[in-house]
Amino acid sequence: MSAIQPCCFFASGLSANSSGGIMETKRHFRSCSICESMCGLEIITRGPDILSVRGDKEDPLSRGYICPKGAAVKDLYNDPDRLKQPVLRTSGGWERISWKEAFDQTEAGLKAIRKEHGKDALAVYFGNPNAHYHGALLYLLPFLLAMNTKNRYSASSADQLPLMVVCEQMFGHMFLLPTPDADRTDYFLLVGANPVVSGGSIMTLPGFARRIKAIQERGGKVAVVDPMKTATATQADKHLPIRPGTDVFFLAALLHVMFREDLADFGWLGHFCDGTDHVHDLVREFTPEKAAPITGISVQDMETVAREFCQAKSAVCYGRMGACVQEHGTVANWLIMLVNIVAGKFDRPGGFMFPTPALDVAKALSLIGHTGHLGKHRSKVRNLPSFGDEFPVAALAEEILTPGEGKIRALVSICGNPVLSAPNGKLVEKALASLDFMVAMDWYIAESSRHANIILPPTNMLEHAHMPTMCHVAGSRNVVKYSPPVFEPGEDTRHNWQILKELAIRMEANPLMRNALRLTTPERLLKAGIRLGPHGAGVNPWGKGLTLGKIADSPHGVDLGPTRSCLPGRLFTKNKRINLAPRVIAREMEAISESLTDYESGGDERYDMLLIGRRNRRSNNSWFHNLERMHKPTNRCTAMMHPADASSRGIESGDLVRLESKIGAVELEAEISDNVMPGVVSVPHGWGHLYDGVKLSVAAKHPGVSVNDITDNLRVDPLCGNAVFSGVPVKVLKTTLSSIR
Ligand SMILES: Nc1nc2c(c(=O)[nH]1)N[C@H]1C(S)=C(S)[C@@H](COP(=O)(O)OP(=O)(O)OC[C@H]3O[C@@H](n4cnc5c(=O)[nH]c(N)nc54)[C@H](O)[C@@H]3O)O[C@H]1N2
Ligand SMILES: Nc1nc2c(c(=O)[nH]1)N[C@H]1C(S)=C(S)[C@@H](COP(=O)(O)OP(=O)(O)OC[C@H]3O[C@@H](n4cnc5c(=O)[nH]c(N)nc54)[C@H](O)[C@@H]3O)O[C@H]1N2
Ligand code: SF4
Ligand SMILES: [Mo]
């Protein structure tokens, strides 16, 4: 424990401000809310100034680690482009309006459209940052219920949707998400994930480079399956470059070897798994010999990985973005579960384990029957399935642009930027521009929010209390932390939850619900949720377990220990059994098996390379580019390709190249690197800040191009409609004249 308590005076921590008043120097501890790592931050302030941001050495998870974005919370807080009060788009430009006016106009605009065109003429899109704030999460559902529209969309369907579908199909709940027990594993197989850069996702485990070192120091091994030799792959013992979009063949081949060589050993999991023989049948055709030419991974490497995985004392196979945003993302994620289960590494220390979060989101949602339900509704234009009562974001633009009954006419976008984050961003752009009415909750006038009639900006992350609720759901160790605000909110500002609550109350038709909502606060809801949660004190006021008060009294967070075996008890399936071969997924696997020969014969000849994405430590999707400190002299929005591909096209580093896909073209600088496998070109997403009317003064100096201008909204995972960003066929050529704007 630190000698100095949080938020107290430093021994010599008093200084005078310009008006002669005394300003306190304070030390605050909180979790960073930018990515899922939820690193502990130590923030020192004096009056309204942030003096320093460092890693909190006593945080039970991050132990002092932070990345450059964590340190930049100061710059976000001070960003002069950040909005603090609502603005209204008028013919003469943006005008500042009062909150009352903004809420009145939002309510009137939405209700007028609902009255004239019906409830489904309204739509909601919620972006990634919502997942990081308990206040936003707690009021999202009441807001969605009040909007009473089927047209809900989110960034999940450009991300982890396939994994959620698999978890619902196999374990009974979309939020019963297994996570690697990396700190105890002897063999870590990562498929399409780069946690050294991303901070880890659906695996809350900060400072991943240190974790890899620790595995290696205790004699364990790390293997990475990725078309790029990423920072994670560089540190690993083995990098297996894979042809984008072909993971299904690699993973099925691992299972094939496990069965063929009698390595499969379900252990005690076998007692509550249904469909073991079916799984064996489903992978029968997927031999490593067939998978090798498709994936680019040798038979020997596949056999070695399967053997090492099964023979390791503990092992875990984990997949993330690369395994999700491909055409067969759902099947790939299902196979990842099976690799763990068939090898008997599931729900075991050092394997793929279920966290037990203090606030059990899965349990709470299951009480209202919200477990996933694939295909409960179908999208109007393309008949894509809903999941978790949301439609795929790849369908958003067409639902706005297609005339007729059920057309979306108004959109509320909550912390999202689909113009840059959804496939075929140009079409999203066109769709947003055509709306009758749009409201955005955003700090910035950015690529998507600039189309809004009204922007409702919430307070900065340092101005509200913070408990990283969803990150605990995917914690590789059970921890919980609640942090009070660092600063009082600015005058006449609103928190994200206050905005959502106000909108929910105004849009809710049921007066009883309205009154009930009025009585709630995030803290009241958290208090109840934690008391009733798996570690909670229960209803007894003197109960021994966890309460929000006890959590708040531990500024560095409460360490609830490593994940524990919890099956079959924790399953949400009615029969408390794991369904190893869910019908919809098995059918898709059979279809892939039948088309094996097509894969062997290659793809579309008009395009000569496959596009993938990449992340950078100084970006977070589309919203870190307005901070000068995040930019380096070198351009980061480049098309990275292998020297062999570059030389065969006469391309050198720094040349302008043109990438053409079925959807469109972008022109950007080439970067030659043998870290990317031949035949693959990598472009990061979240760039392309040159749209008229965007008010991001720093980002405008480093605009880049949006890779989603060439990703295809029509090519989705057929099972769930998730976006496909990996393995997009493109033609790459050298160009000199920039003809695209
Ligand atoms: N090609 C390609 N596309 C991708 C991906 C990829 O790898 N490749 N990745 C996908 C993934 S994983 C994701 S999660 C999505 C992200 O997709 P989105 O969530 O749609 O996009 P973000 O860039 O995260 O945009 C967040 C917006 O919210 C604002 N914002 C940030 N914090 C706050 C806050 O606290 N309050 C409010 N009100 N606003 C805030 C920002 O200004 C920004 O405009 O993109 C996806 N798109
Ligand atoms: N610095 C930074 N951190 C972030 C973010 C950010 O934008 N910047 N975004 C946050 C968000 S929203 C998310 S969801 C997480 C994502 O976290 P991660 O999934 O760990 O991050 P990615 O960099 O998308 O890693 C995906 C990897 O898959 C590889 N890949 C691409 N196609 C394929 C394929 O077909 N097969 C295989 N096996 N691999 C493939 C890519 O080369 C890449 O290395 O990161 C979060 N953290
Ligand atoms: S890794 Fe993520 S949580 Fe940690 S400091 Fe960086 S942005 Fe924040
Ligand atoms: Mo994401």
Short note summarizing the structure:
With 741 residues, the protein is an alpha/beta fold. The chain has 4 domains: 9-78, 2-Layer Sandwich (Phosphorylase Kinase, domain 1), CATH 3.30.200.210; 87-159 and 360-562, Rossmann fold, CATH 3.40.50.740; 174-355 and 580-586, Dimethylsulfoxide Reductase, domain 2 (3-Layer(aba) Sandwich); 603-735, Barwin-like endoglucanases (Beta Barrel), CATH 2.40.40.
Notes on the protein architecture:
- It is a single chain.
- The chain starts with 8 loop residues before the first strand and ends in a 7-residue tail after the last strand.
- The relative contact order is 0.15.
- By secondary structure, it is α/β, with parallel strands linked by helices.
- Mean pLDDT is 94; it is low at 1-13.
- The strands form seven sheets. A seven-stranded mixed beta sheet has the order 6-5-18-17-16-7-8, covered by helices on one side. It has a six-stranded mixed beta barrel with strand order 22-26-23-25-24-27.
- The protein folds into four domains: 9-78, Phosphorylase Kinase, domain 1; 87-159 and 360-562, Rossmann fold (3-Layer(aba) Sandwich), CATH 3.40.50; 174-355 and 580-586, Dimethylsulfoxide Reductase, domain 2, CATH 3.40.228; 603-735, Barwin-like endoglucanases (Beta Barrel), CATH 2.40.40.20.
- The protein is built from 26 helices and 27 strands.
- Residues 128, 159 line the site of molybdenum atom.
